[in-house]
Write a structure and sequence with these properties.
Distance between the termini: 18 Å
Strand content: under 5%
Oligomer: single chain
Number of strands: 0
Largest sheet: none
Helix content: 55-70%
Radius of gyration: 16 Å
Number of helices: 6
Shape: globular
Order of helices and strands: HHHHHH
């Protein structure tokens, strides 16, 4: 494969991931933003495990989605940066050969990171089961549950299907599978 082909494929892969992430998030806006959220587009955060080109696509898609989300600079910059770091960590986890670890960085980083600024933007949801738990930890639980649903219940099966179908077999990353 020529360097030009690899570059075109890398740009195309990243662009498709960015567009898919942004469109899914914005289309499902009622459940994608806020104190209780299940951002189903986060299922795509497993992609760096099989395609490094998806790292920048996830970052750009998240940035675009967060611009439209209405939560302001915290979400636009911090939320997008958290997605970038999670994508890079997911890429590094590929060396373990354990796909079930791929969703872990986005779940952990978003549960603890996004919660840090959500507590500045919203009152914590009142959940009787959690009693008088500090607001930050209420957000950690609500965001964490949403991330587990998106990344493990949707993203992990997606990852296994992509690996089984060898969707990214021609990418520059295929030598790592």
């Amino acid at each position: 494969m020529t360097k030009r082909t690899m570059t075109i494929r890398t740009i195309s892969t990243g662009a498709v991931v960015a567009a898919t992430y942004a469109v899914l998030t914005i289309w499902l806006a009622p459940i994608s933003y806020g104190p209780i959220q299940v951002r189903l587009s986060e299922a795509l955060t497993v992609l760096p495990f099989v395609a490094s080109a998806s790292i920048w696509g996830l970052f750009l898609g998240c940035l675009i989605a967060n611009i439209f989300g209405g939560l302001g600079p915290w979400d636009i910059f911090v939320g997008s940066l958290l997605t970038l770091v999670a994508a890079m960590l997911t890429y590094l986890l590929r060396k373990t050969g354990k796909p079930w670890l791929a969703p872990l960085p986005p779940v952990v980083l978003n549960a603890f990171g996004v919660s840090a600024y959500l507590q500045l933007l919203f009152e914590p949801p009142r959940i009787a089961l959690l009693g008088n738990m500090p607001g930050y930890f209420v957000f950690v639980i609500t965001v964490g549950i949403g991330e587990i649903i998106a990344c493990y219940a949707v993203g992990l099966p997606l990852l296994y299907a992509l690996r089984r179908l060898r969707v990214f077999k021609h990418s520059q990353d295929s030598r790592h599978e």
